[in-house]
Amino acid sequence: DDRSPRTNFTFSPVPLSELAEAVRKTIIPKTVPWWVFFLWIPKGAGGWSPQATDRQPWIQLDLRNRMEVTAIATQGRYGSSDWVSGYLLLFSDTGRAWKQYRQEDGVGRFAGNVNADGVVLQKLSHSIRSRFLRFVPLDWNPSGWVGLRVEVYGCAYKSYVADFDGRSSLLYRFNQKSMSTVKDVISLRFKSRQAEGVLLHGEGQRGDYITLELHRGRLALYLNLDDTRLRFSSGRVAVTLGSLLDDQHWHSVLIERFNKQVNFTVDSHTEHFRTKGEGDSLEVDYELSFGGIPLPGKPGTFLRKNFHGCIENLYYNGINVIDLAKRRKPQIYSGNVTFSCSEPQLVSTTFLSSSSSFLSLRAMASSLGGFAVRFQFRTWNPDGLLLSTRLALEPQRLELQISNSRLRLTHHTSAQQKEEVSTGHKVNDGLWHSVSLSSRGLQVTMTLDNEPPSTIDLEDHMEAGDLYFGGCPSSSPADTGCENPTLAFQGCMRLISVNSQPVDLNLVRQGRLGNYRELQFNTCGIHDRCLPNFCEHGGQCSQSWSTFYCDCSGTGYNGATCHNSIYEVSCEAYRLAGSSSGYFSIDPDGSGPLGPTKVYCNMTEDKVWTVVTHNSTDPIRVQGSTLQKPYIMKFNYSASPEQLIALVAGSEQCQQEIVYSCRKSRLFNTWDGSPLSWWVDQAGERRTYWGGFLPGVQQCSCSLEENCIDMNYFCNCDADTDSWANDTGVLSYKEHLPVSEIVIGDTNRTFSEALYRIGPLRCYGDKSTWNAASFYQESSYLHFPTLQTELSADLSFYFKTSAPSGVFLENLGLKDFIRVELSSPSVVTFSFDVGNGPVILAVKSHVPLNDRQWHYVRAERSVKEASLQVDQLPLRFLEAPSDGHLRLRLNSQLFVGGTAARQRGFLGCIRTLTINGVTVNLEERAKMTPGVSPGCPGHCSSSSSLCHNRGRCVEKNSGYVCDCSQSAYSGPSCKEEVSVSFDRESSVTYTFQEPFSVMQNRSSQASSVYRESSRARENMAFSFMTTQSPAMLLTVSTFSQQYIAVILARNGSLQIWYHLHVDRRPDVFSPRPTSLVDGRLHRIRIHQLPSWETVIILCSFWITGGENFDEEVMQAGSKGFIGCLSSVQFNHVAPLKAALLNRGSSLVSVRGHLEESNCGLLADSTTSHPLSGKCESEKHDNDTRHDSAVIGGLFFVLNYCSGVNIKHAMLVCFFYFPSFYLSHCLSQKSMLHLRNCIFEKRL
Asked: Which segments constitute the Laminin G domain (predicted)?
């Protein structure tokens, strides 16, 4: 009643037994016969409204007994403009300690009404078993006030309860000496007053045991079947589930075991695992104990504490243990167990804000002088103010805070002086911690849990003023003597006492004691954001009060949730990125569940071969084997079976060579044709074909080629001759590859033997790269099964079109959806809704995207953020709300190239559509869809590389042309090398026109925003030919004294000087220690790994001398370079080519005489020498050792330097700030004097 002075109150409906039958007959449909409801409308009024002065209004229902609530409904106040549009739901058994109800996604907020008359029903994802319910309004009609009518749906709940006081237990004794079971089902519900305690234990003499133990607020299940090694060792491994289970609220547990397979469920989280041991049955002797172990000295036990709390509805294999105990059955021993749940009077308060929450109390006088404060706290935050008080002696004050996860006490004696002591470790672990602070005499003592006390000595007796818990008021620190050192406390407190007097927080809430802001009383709102763990691929989850972070170190993935692979999906992708042959890590399923694997990529041919090795590559001789006792060799590959399947499936073709030589050793029995030797395929099936024939044909390659030594047989070995024969062949039916095992069974006769070698698995081609479909009608589309991307989704594809707009893909749910579209000729949008309202990200290009050229799109959505990347344009991202809905719930088909409404369809081509690492087969579906055709017309759509060396294929009406502007090569196909001869006085300098950014290495504690493309990398390549050393090949440098220099040392070896840390000596890499001063062409390629912070270079040096370069580099620079440089490439820039073709460009500075050469072409006609293999690093001082030739760099000026007087240096600077004044010129003692070197120009 809005006229009532009492605004927070409890309503008790009439008993359920009187309402249930009437409700069932008149209101509730017969299809739901056991639901009942409660309706409350105060007499003479149309609903509930609080007073306008109430700071924290709520309405509370007392159901008289614990009930199972399955749904709630709300309505506004009758005949008014008052309604609640958002609210929280809390529940309690006692009406004192409350817990917030959270939906399946962890969302605590319920959507309310939009008017006063409509009814909004909310079905609970998991039911509530409780007596009290509390509705806390969050938002209401801005033109009205809070108004509420509520209904609650549910049914009666029956409970068998036992109370354990920390010293009691229940024993269930078997009828026989031991109980052996192959199947067990154990279920119970519990609520605990402490974070430690044994709930269940049983063990047998042969080593079996089962223990369910609460440890640090989590449940640990130990289970072993017939493994005596584990019984007497300390290596017992637990399966752990749950978190914050000491919150004094009910939690459910279910253990299901069949043989070794176990399902372990705590609340709504389930872990499936296979138990240790050799047996399938669990053998327990004499008894099972619940709530503790009565004999702590019992052999083999490892308990910490007995359980302290309540257990209800405890069932062991269908037996109601608590019911037997209540009925005093002889098989149950109940030691000090009572059968009603005693409720402790522990009431918590939540400090909601890290900036504005506080609780202020007046320090009550102590009869002993000084003061004493005690309380308990729990939090996830590593920093926060717990307590601050001004002392009687101005300006002294005490501060108790959490700092870097430790507890710190600071005594400020003046504005500049202070004394500090610290204690504890990782006190932000989410557990309850007890802290006391007291002053006696001339000491202040701080005690944390069971840690030794820490003290600060005082110069005088002290008395505290007002006490500020959790933070400080927003008023001036001079008025309160309180100032937040970093952040306010965000977490829970309870059991606050001042000078041995407990603080009644209900008086605080009612405004009768102290003051507060941003507090939530009678509940602890802590929430474990790492349960479940949303960090993928083994990422480590950590959290603060409001969010979680993923540490992706060492996983091979990055992104906010470690979703994105840092590796390419295939060797073909590495080639397209500009790499050459070598060992690479590939991730065949991208962001899918499979991890990366290391392979060798052979790029020396037109086809790019992926090579996967195994454990037995040398020839092996076999003797003494029979069909009854055959020789067997199993092959372990450098990739897992699942990775091999993904690699083979994604390749165009695979093959594996079998080299097989024999002497009096047959492959097949010549009488009946039964195999005497065979190999096993990837699926474990026996295969008896050897070489090029199709599966099922028991023949060898010689039969196919019609050159067997005896044409009466299909294999050379079957001729069974005394001389050596050969049946080497290549297996090329890729669905059977790789070979997992070989079996040889006919080498037991005199002089009988076989010699075999199984080659590595070799695959080429990437089937996904050119899997394309063309859309000709706006109403056409391809449809696929619903996206299974509830928590994370990444979508990537290429498109080309001439249409101004169109939907690339769409998938709908009841309310949720996801869509990617070309919304205008230059804008791509990514939109979705997971229940928090529509989200739209858009990337706008400065040039039209409907230019009939290929463009790349990548959209990602996770529980942390969403992002959209188009070509190389800046990444757009948006962080997800910390307490919003998480799951994208879709139920329709996935539409590609159109929508379900057949409107705004896409016209053009889409290729390489990949969703969460899985390539969508567009071509196969397009074959059967009207208005869509497989593939994409145009020369540039083919999988063959028409344009080489970074050349870009551009479609024309009657053909294509190769755009070589971003290639170091020229010619119609970008294959002709551009070479220049240098003399001692010549050099080239190239300056980037705009700042350049490199991928950043984000800390796991940072925002984890995926700001840069996961494919970002820097590539530098060139070739050279010379007969002179030492020599400077090139330098790359920055204004911050960082540089990379590639030189030839005095002995002619190549050295890469790598100096990115100005406070340390540089690393020196020597890819090949031998001399390269041999007049032959050598190719160099340098890659940058994505591991350095984003740097925007503002100023670069063209340096042939200076204080920042080491002496060896200076000497090489002084000698210059005499010889030929060819095919110089840095990312999309070809500096050498630009120097020849753009002499007038402001970006290119040429010094001395340059002469175009054909050294690269001449060298290719003979032999060139690429550098490969491991690198050797020379150590300087105590620098970290490196053993890789893949080097990252940050480049703005590329310098190809010949000998210039080492006394001279030229400074080339470009500033990109809105305004900047350079008012002086850098100079050195022997620097060339430059007239007019004073710049007063705004840049």
From this structure: 161-341, 348-524, 771-936, 995-1159
Q: How many CA atoms lie within 13 A of 781 on its CB side?
A: 23
- For residue 1234, with 0-12 CB atoms within 10 Å meaning exposed, 13-18 middle and 19 or more buried, which class applies? exposed
pLDDT at residue 1218 greater than cutoff 60: no
Separation CA 832–CA 226 (nearest Å): 52
Q: Which token pair is 205?
A: 């003499």
Cα 778 from Cα 979, distance rounded (Å)? 50
* Average pLDDT over all residues of the chain: 80
Cα separation of 390 and 396, whole Å?
Answer: 6
- Closest alpha carbon to 1137 in 974, 1026, 1024, 979: 979
Cα distance between residue 492 and residue 519, in whole Å: 10
Calpha distance 238→191 (Å, rounded): 21
Q: Which residue carries 């300390």 as its tokens?
A: 234
Q: Are strands 276-277 and 218-225 parallel, antiparallel or unpaired?
A: parallel
Contact 1171, 1072 (CB under 8 A): yes
Asked if 899 and 892 count as a contact pair (C-beta separation under 8 A), the reply is: no
User: With 70 as the cut, is the pLDDT of residue 560 above it?
Assistant: yes
Cα 603 from Cα 1092, distance rounded (Å): 28
Report the chain's terminal Cα–Cα distance, integer Å: 70
In the chain, the amino acid numbered 1201 is C
What single letter denotes the amino acid at residue 386? Answer: L
Rounded Cα distance, 1125 and 66, in Å: 85
What's the rounded Cα separation, in Å, for the pair 552 and 1095?
Answer: 22
Distance of CA 927 to the CA centre of its chain: 37
Identify the helix (H) or strand (E) that includes residue 469: strand 464-469
Question: pTM of the full predicted structure?
Answer: 0.73
Beta strands 1081-1088; 1168-1170: pairing state: parallel
Give burial (CB, 10 Å; 0-12/13-18/19+) of 1094. middle
- Number of Cβ within 10 Å of residue 615's Cβ equals 10
Of the pLDDT bands very low, low, confident and very high (cuts 50, 70, 90), residue 496 is very high
Block residue for tokens 């407190």? 493
By residue count, the chain amounts to 1243
Rg (CA), the chain: 38
Distance CA 218, CA 266 (A): 10
Residues 6+ apart with CB under 8 A from 359: 349, 351, 468, 469, 470, 493, 508, 514, 515, 516, 519
Rounded to an integer, the average pLDDT of 637-646 is 92
Looking at residue 228, what is its pLDDT?
Answer: 60
Separation CA 828–CA 841 (nearest Å): 8
| pLDDT exceeds cutoff 80 at 317 | yes
DSSP H helices, 1093-1239, are 1111-1119, 1135-1141, 1159-1165
Q: What is the DSSP letter of 940?
A: G
- HEC readout, 991-1005: ECCCCCCCCCCCCCC
Other C-beta atoms lying within 10 Å of the C-beta of residue 898: 27
| Biggest CA-to-CA distance, the chain | 114
- Residue from 764, 769, 831, 766 nearest 797 by CA: 769
* Cα 908 from Cα 778, distance rounded (Å): 10
Q: How many beta carbons lie within 10 A of that of residue 993, not counting itself? A: 11
Cβ(37)–Cβ(109) under 8 Å? no
The residue among 603, 614, 601 whose CA lies nearest residue 656 is 614
Token pair for 188: 């119970």
Cβ–Cβ contacts within 10 Å for residue 274, how many? Answer: 9
d(CA 105, CA 8): 29
